[in-house]
Amino acid sequence: MIRLIDVTRTFHMGDQAVYALNNINLQIAAGEYVSIMGPSGSGKSTLLNLIGLLDKPDSGLYELDGKAITDLSETEQARIRREKIGFVFQSFHLIPRLTAAENIELPLILSGMPSAQRQQRVANALQAFELSARAHHRPAELSGGQRQRVAIARATIMQPSVILADEPTGNLDHQIGAEVMLLLENLHHSGTTLIVVTHDRELGARAHRQIGMRDGKILTDQHDTD
Amino acid sequence: MTLIDTLQTSLKTVVSYRIRSLLIILAMALGVAAVIVLTALGDGARRYVIKQFSSIGTNLLVVLPGRAETSGAFLGSVLGQTPRDLTLKDAQLLGRLPQVRRYAPLNVGAAELSAANRLREVTVLGSTANLIPIRHMKLAQGGFLTQGSERGAQIVLGAKIAQEFFPRSQVVGQRVRLGDSRFLVSGVLASQGESMGFNTDEIVIIPIDYAQAMFNTTSLFRILVEANSPGEIESAKKAILETLRQSHDGEEDSTVITQDAILSTFDRILNALTLAVAGIAAISLIVAGILVMNVMLVAVSQRTSEIGLLKAIGATSTDIRRLFFAEAVWLSLVGALLGFVLGQFGSLLLRLAYPQLPAWAPAWASIAGIVVALVTGILASMLPASKAARLDAVQALGKK
Q1: Which residues contact A81 (CB under 8 A, 6 or more apart)?
Q2: pLDDT tens digit sequence for B81-105
Q3: Total count of domains within chain B
Q4: B201 and B302 together in one domain
Q5: Which of B296, B240, B254 is nearest to B96 (CA)?
Q6: ipTM higher than threshold 0.90
Q7: N or C terminus of chain B with fewer C-beta within 10 Å?
């Protein structure tokens, strides 16, 4: 359960303050599938980063699962990112030196899980995302779709309650992109909250709830009735 | 993130940036190796000199005529007097001192040695039987002024001279002519080679009376005195000076040099030299430390988006600081250990090239080299590591 109350985030460009988020009030229930759409500069990525605890609001309140996040220490915020949130990026953000398996393993290493347990989890994840044959390949040796699958495996390895995807298909062709979206939607079906930022209308329309943004404000908030 | 995982992850990074890591490790290693090899050289030289100096005797005091110290004028010089010579009588007086185990008066000169149709100029030492034990010389054959033959016209030949004159025949018992006198060869020195620039293989030793007669002198070149024990060296020195002062009508015109004092002086000088050389080598370690800092700063900016990602998947600032820190520690540690091995290998080469030089790096130098390498590496990584930890996650993710 995500709750934003009167959240504002400003950036300074020269001596001018730009509102990336202007008094946002938003509530997303656990297990929802939400798309956030809007032109570039509308604040949708800032909103995502804020929900993912990568960014802090200048004012306002952010509650995650009933707990105010804004006053937590850096270390506690890192722990929440690790345990509750999974990020999927447009440019995958895989570490080029590490193999697919090692990339997927990273969040587990950060959590301090013992090695034997990690190997088991990674093997399961590789299988679930049909990457077992590619486990020991580096990102450079993988196709775009495979890379994004590795990234999704990494985002879900800690079994987070929220998946935040920022243009997850932006670097993929249409068909592969559709496959990746199916993977993400499968996660949603198993109970994970899925928030997708995109400017692709078709993609955004797949979500059960569509939020339209412009100039740091929520313009539309549409729920599908199904 | 556990410590072991941090170390493993950073080691993986070090290994994957192979060329970069190798170069920085090499820089570190050369610095440590330089410290080790140069201190091995300095300390080897020190030990070589000390050994050479120790080999000339034990608890040795050398008495020489004249005052070596320039402080305080020699009163006699105003009246046109020169310092009194040391005589055999002085030597005998010193022999009676309780602190003195034995003594040997010494005269040095050059004369022509001829025998078996050969002729050459040799350095002649005139002394007593005690010279041999005091100067730690060894006889390969025969003896010198042994009991019952104290007054004989005996001569001891250096190893090389004996070999030159009598290559094939028995040496002891041969008759030789030195200057205008005839001598009976009573012994041959064992070959010892050069020591303190004085080659005992090319000298001859004759009794002091004969030497004084041959060189037409009554004064002595030196008196060598061996004290009973190291603890008595200082009191022996005082007693000797006092005895000679009385014998010389109250004039302090002799100098006593103790082997100890010379040894410790050399020791100090050469130790200081070793330290100075080590210090110069240590500068290269500081340079290597700066290289580590530079490399790590480059790494931080190269891996900015990676740092952003690590933060996104839940790494704390501490995790990231430790990762970069551990990376620098690996580089320094491997560099230091490699440098240690290289340094020991270099010292080994030195010892092989100069067998006389005991070029072993002292333990403190090896430890200091490794510690300085680690400390500079660690200090140098602090700035880059905290720079990485402070990066803003959103901005870092945006970087490519």
Answers
A1: A52, A53, A54, B311, B312, B313, B314
A2: 566 788 888 899 998 999 899 999 9
A3: 2
A4: no
A5: B240
A6: yes
A7: C
Note the helical H segments in chain A. Answer: 44-51, 74-84, 100-111, 115-128, 144-156, 174-189, 201-204
- A34-48+81-223, what's its fold? Rossmann fold (3.40.50)
Read off the pLDDT of residues A170-215 as tens digits, 9 standing for 90 and up. Answer: 889 999 999 999 999 999 999 999 999 998 888 899 999 999 999 9
The reply to whether B143 and B238 lie within a common domain is yes
Report whether B140 contacts B170 (CB < 8 A).
Answer: no
Residue B194, token pair as written in the block: 């050069």
pLDDT of residue B83: 65
> Strand A193-198 to strand A162-166: parallel, antiparallel, or no bridges (unpaired)?
parallel
pLDDT digits (tens, 9 = 90+) for B47-77: 888 888 887 788 889 998 876 555 555 555 5
User: Is 0.90 topped by the overall pTM?
Assistant: no
> Which chain B residues have a beta carbon less than 8 Å from that of A110?
1, 310, 313-315, 319
Decide if B397 and A54 are in contact by the 8 Å CB cutoff.
Answer: yes
A136 touches chain B (CB under 8 A): no
CA atoms within 13 A on the CB side of B6: 17
| Residue found under tokens 């920085």 | B24
- Residues of chain A contacting residue B302, judged by C-beta atoms under 8 Å apart: none
DSSP string, A68-126: E-TTS-HHHHHHHHHHHEEEE-TT----TTS-HHHHHHHHHHHHT--HHHHHHHHHHHH
